[in-house]
Amino acid sequence: MKVSIPISGFDPTVVSGCQDEFLKKIQHEYGIIVAMREEYIHLNGGEKKVKEAAKAIEKMLKNIGNEINSTHQKIKNVEEKDPTQVTTPKKLVKAKSTGQVEYLKAIDDHDIVISIGPAGTGKTYLGVAKAVSYLMAKRVERIILTRPAVEAGESLGFLPGAIEDKVDPYLRPLYDALNDFLPYDRIKKYLSMKTIEVAPLAYMRGRTLNDSFIILDEAQNTTSMQMKMFLTRMGWRSRIVVTGDITQVDLPVNIFSGLIEIQHLLKNIPGIEFIYLNEKDVVRHNLVQKIIKAYEIKNST
Hints:
This protein is of the alpha/beta class. About 45% of the residues lie in helices and about 20% in strands.
């Protein structure tokens, strides 16, 4: 006997358990074949055992549904009471400066937020935390993280491996941020199901991204055309966060940064908010603040 149980709307990592622990348990206890794919749990075996297993799974899904609704409400209540903090499965993230508070509030209040500031101000970190929070609360269906793969001092063509290996160093900071907020097994499954996507900016061309939380990191290294291409990917019920440091542009000297351009081009459009962070918002080692300040003084003289 074959039975397929729909799991649409459920987090597959929660349904299957850590390393598919729950599915393996059902398979072992009832002596049937259990597989999960395309938003269904498929059962195959003797009629009696399949029916018993199906009842156990349906009961489990009901319990998960109740827990999910309770968790979503808790996240909503926490962040409505205190919008300066973000709830994720692994940690509670709190804004540590006035600029960071404005940044988090802007993401909730605007469809597009452009965050500009030096390294260490939490632009990417808080953006990814917010994206994970939105996904857990089902305010979006997926997260898309992207960066331009700009060759800062070395050529991709001379790096070993396939194109995926060559762009991986550029995308690694985005994976690092995800690891802070989600368990590894869940990240792995989300990536395999495209619930979370981490990709070079070039992969965004020709797409329309609905129900998504989309982050463009290191945006100072986009060209004008790349920035236009990215921003026009935005679909219905989506949020876009653009982050970058306009003092760290790695583009050739004859190419103008798309991030610098949109400061003037888009500044008066309702629904788009610019947040400027500075050395006071740096949350890394206190020497980082002093280093940034020293460079600012050098560049101003």
